[in-house]
C-alpha cells in the first residue's frame, strides 16, 4: 500500500472535481481519496511508502482514445515531402501513404514488431498516458491483421492497459472494393472466434469506404457483438457521424467536417466524439473539429493522439491538451476531462480508469506544479514527477 499526501490539488475527473490538500491511498486500485485532514491514521501505519506531494498536483493517468499503436517502420520521408507541399495522392503514387506501412508491417516478424512497439509504450508513459486504445489496420489481409491484433493483446497490461480494435483501414491494391468488404466480414468472424478485438472500426470517407459499405461492415460487426467505432467526417462529410449514431457506435472519431444538423443528432445520443487535433495540426489543416459547438450542445467530447506513422507521430497527450485549449477553444478543465474520463468512455473503460475514485485502477500522475492550469500555461514542458500505473511507480524524475 502506498500513500500520496498533501497534494496542493487533486484533479479527480469525478465529484468533487478538485480536492485541495488531498491524499490518496492505493494498492493496485485506489483504496481511499480525500482531504489530508480526513486521512484515517491506520493507512499510515500499514503503508510501505508515503510520498509527500505537497505543492504538487495529482491527475488521473491520461487515456488516449485513438491510436494506431502497432506498425513497423516510419514515414519520415513522407512527412518531409508533405512539408515541401506534396499532396497525399502524389505521395501514394511514389510509394508512400498507408500502403508503405502495410508493406513494412507485413514483412516484419511479430518479434521484430513487438520490440519496435515497446519503445513507443515507454514514450506514452513518460508523458503520462496509462491507458490507450490500439487499432490494427496495417495488414489489410487476415494473416497480418491477426499478427497485429495478437501483438496488441500481448502488450496489454505490460504495463499500459490497451483496448484492441480491428480497423478496416484501406483497400488493398489488388482487390475490388465490393469483394474486399465481403472478405472483411469473413475476417470479423475469425477475429471474434479468436477474441482478438473489443471494437471494430472503419475508415468511412469519400473514396475509401463509402456509407453503404461502412453500414454493411458495421452491421455485421454489431451482429457479432463487437462494439463500434468510426473514422469519419475527416476530409468530407458523407454522413458518417449520422450513421454512427444510428448504429449505436461507442465513438465517432475525427469530425473536422461535421455540420450543425449532425451536432443536433449527436447531442441526443450517447456516442462519444473523439477529436484528434494533433493530426489536423501536423497536416497543417486550417479547419479543426468544432469542439466548442459540440460541448456547448452537450455532446460528449474525448481526445486522442491518433498516434500513427503517417499523420500524427506523437504519443504525447499533454501536447493534445495544449492544442485543444489553444486551437479548439476548450477550457483547460474540459481538455483534462476529455483526456481522462471521457476518453475512458470512448473505449468502454470508464468503470476502471479515467478518474480518481475508490475501486478504480491506481493510475495516478503527479505534476511538479501547484496549479493544474500550469499543464497548459507552462506550454510544451513535461512537468511530470511521478507516473503510477496500477499502483506501480513506472516513472519518476528527481
Ligand atoms: Zn486513426
Outline of the structure:
The chain is an alpha/beta fold.
Beta content comes to: 15-25%
The number of distinct helices, counting runs of at least 4 residues, comes to: 16
CATH architecture of the largest domain: Alpha-Beta Barrel
* Strand-pairing-aware structural class: alpha/beta
CATH fold-level assignment of the largest domain = TIM Barrel
Radius of gyration: 21 Å
Which CATH class of the largest domain applies here? Alpha Beta
Overall tally of structural domains: 2
> Could you give me the name of the CATH homologous superfamily of the largest domain?
Metal-dependent hydrolases
Helix content: 25-40%
What ranges have pLDDT less than 50 throughout 5 or more consecutive residues?
none
Query: Mean pLDDT score, rounded?
Result: 97
Bound molecules: zinc ion
Distance between the termini: 22 Å
For the report, how would you describe the main beta sheet?
A: 8 strands, mixed
Approximate shape: globular
Number of strands: 16
Explain what this protein looks like in three dimensions:
By secondary structure, this protein is of the alpha/beta class. The protein folds into two domains: 2-60 and 356-396, Urease, subunit C, domain 1 (Roll); 62-346, Metal-dependent hydrolases (TIM Barrel, Alpha-Beta Barrel). The chain has helices at residues 41-46, 76-83, 88-93, 98-107, 110-126, 142-155, 177-193, 211-223, 240-246, 260-267, 277-282, 291-296, 317-326, 332-338, 341-346, 374-377; strands at residues 2-11, 18-26, 30-35, 49-52, 57-60, 62-64, 129-135, 161-168, 199-204, 227-232, 251-254, 272-275, 300-303, 364-367, 384-389, 392-396. Strands 1, 2, 3, 4, 5, 14, 15 and 16 form an eight-stranded mixed beta sheet that branches. An eight-stranded parallel beta sheet has the order 6-7-8-9-10-11-12-13. It is globular and about 70 Å long. The chain starts with a strand and ends with a strand. The structure holds zinc ion. Zinc ion is lined by residues 66, 68, 231, 306.
